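question for whoever is on the cluster today: can someone run the full assembly for these? two chains, 852 residues total. i dont have access anymore since they changed the login thing
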Amino acid sequence: MNLGNSIGDITLFVVNVLILVYAVSIAAFYIFLALLSAWEMRRYMNKNYFVDYKYILSSPLAPGISLIAPAYNEGLTIIDNVKSLMSIMYNNFEVIIINDGSKDDTLQKMITAFDLVQVSFDLQYTLTTKKVRGVYKSRNRAFRKLTVVDKENGGKADALNVGLNVSRKELVACIDVDCIIEPDALLKMVKPFLEESREVIASGGVVRIANSCVVEEGRLVEVRLPEILIARFQVLEYIRAFLLGRMAWSRLNGLLLISGAFGLFKRDIAIKAGGYDHKTVGEDMELVVRMRTYMHEQNLPYKVSYIPDPLCWTEAPANYKILGRQRNRWARGTFETLKIHRRVFMNPKYGIMGMLSYPFWTFYEWLAPFVESIGLVYFLLLVILGKVNWPFFLALLAAVYCFAFFISMFALLAEENSFFKYTQKRDISKMILTALIEPFWFHPRVVWWALKGNFDLIKGKKTWGEMTRQGFVQYKSKEKKAA
Amino acid sequence: MGQTLIDFTPETLFDTIVFIAFFFFCSGLLFMFSLYLLRIVKSFRKKTEQRVREQSQRIVNTIIINDSMSDRTAPEAAFSFQIQQLKLLLGHSTIRKNVFIKLLLDIKRNLSGSSAATVQSIYKQMQLEEHSRKKLRSLRWEVVGQGIRELGEMHCTTRINDIRPFINSRNELLRQEAFMALVRLQSGDEKFSFLDAYTETITSWMTLNIHAFLLQMDSRELPDFSRWFHSKNESVRLFTLQMARQFRSTKALPRIAELVNHVNENVAVLAIETLGEMDAYPYSDVLLSLVKASSIRKVIAATKALGRIGEPEITAEALSPLCDHPVYEVRYVAAQSLLQLGAAGRDRIMEHQSSVSGIIKHLQEPLLQ
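^ ran it for u. tokens below:
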């Protein structure tokens, strides 16, 4: 019995120590990233204090950009979305809309609205994709920068690969057609490609939540904090992730993820790396990792850059069911990418990516939900066994909660100090309240969805899951009604 | 005891965790209050800035309008009076001075000629030059950068020697600012003289900015860029070649032609492209030999350039085999160039119809032009 007790105690001791080490290391890492982000953000703001982006707009030396936007059953909003993309501020650009075998009238609407006709485009399948049924151009000179490609349904990654095949520009911006892009987004995104002495292979921008914002004609005219709590949780989450996380990873040149909603890539490198992988649901992260591994394997110096300016606005899922599907997909995408590129893990050949970013993603992004769940089960077990030191437990709980509050406040301060988008007087109080509720109301759900995503992946789930949106149009009509 | 580690936890560990909780709680609270405070400070600063901008802009506008009047109805005394008004408005406040300088820079960006010179003279009359020069001594690089930018934009030629040390600064941004300021401040052949000893990289961003600045200049004042075509610094070679191309510096053509076989592929490709862009017909022979080069980039650049400047018969014969090239881009530009060459090219392309038929259809599609 004594021996059994000893083994049990040793096991509990080891588990305790492991969980403690994990918690301390993750907290330390987050603090490090937060501080580095704050420093880098300040540097960015100072560096761009005087920048006149109009120089890029008028310069013949600015690189050409193809905006690639896949569309699937977007008939309701496609015309507004395309017009919004066409009005972006940049000189040398083209818009390529890929109709990914929509079952609705997406293509027909575009043909009618933009006076499109099929052309003899000599398409090369440099990246293997589903069959392209036709390439369309407008007879109206006002839309000469628009190209519409109709193809068989093959998913987002496949559609983006078609866009890469069709594009003839140096850079490609892969975007979600239903996102709202700031008019000067390309000018800001292209700057890192121009100013770095190392080759920049990709650049990403901050994605913000547009729920409750006022949108007219595909343009964001007023930024507002979402009215519903679920969207506000996501606002806080996005601010934390984009302003505190990615900024620091960019500084370390260890950024692994550029949001699929809006990213700018060097076309030739994306193609040489093999384009988007249509077998994964996390194609955005997978492409960045693949482009990076390609550069390392070719021994080419490079950088993946990141812009903290809010350049892209997206509508966040407005109910837990849809949000659950999105997070489920993200979890699957993360694991698939980590699995595909497992050779990078702790491999010094891949530099910071191999030795820092990849292990971070493995241990603190992918593994965290498991550790949290195991910790919870373990705690319940200790409660049942009556082996909990309650004062110690409460102190630990308070430390974890206060840490979450601290990080959220830090992120909000970074936002307030930099881009200051939520200007209403009550916005700060609302966000503080959101930060106070989030750890015990929203976070457990995120953990659950991540776990479910991983289990679904084991079960072989490969689908994206239906993502219904409320759309921005209603805000526009709401505003008009109010007027 | 038969209990877990939690019961064995030393007091110190417990105290440490309580301390950590307390620390994060206090820090979180501090940030929370900072959020509110920052909002108040920001609102106040924004209002102040707006007020200063509005008030000073009115006076600056008056000065510019008076100065631009052809009959010069506004006497010198009026100018001095307005300057005095501005001085009273700004007082000794550094914040106000910085807001005003930013305003002047914003105004100047949209002006040229005598109006831009008026803005510069306001800056100098307000003795802001000294304010900007003091910034060069700051320990904060961003302040130094601002100082350099202000002196450069406001054409303070007497400050060249203050700026020059930053040209090889370890800080990349200061280097960029110093580079651009020196281009603005130095005149004639001296404008780019610092390139002789420039060891750092000239980024595309710098090139783009300088190009935008040079566009506003009289092209006769531009230096002979070919002077740096053989610089040891690759980025200097590329920059000057790019400038020669953008400003169609025809006197540099013989030296550009010498670069088409440069060991550095980037330089060689840019030289080839430049010959084509500048319609350098006498140098088409130089390019003919390059269509058989081992470097695909060189082949593509030479083929493209020959489409513009090549002698039809000879060029068509040289480009014709490229229609069967294994690389698609080469086949594409070969077909494109052959079509550009006219009848001679079209005859040749027909011989390779099978391998480039899709490309020909594409190239002849009016909506794809």
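summary bc i know u wont read the tokens: Chain A is about 55% helix and 15% strand. Chain A touches chain B through 62 residues (CB under 8 Å).
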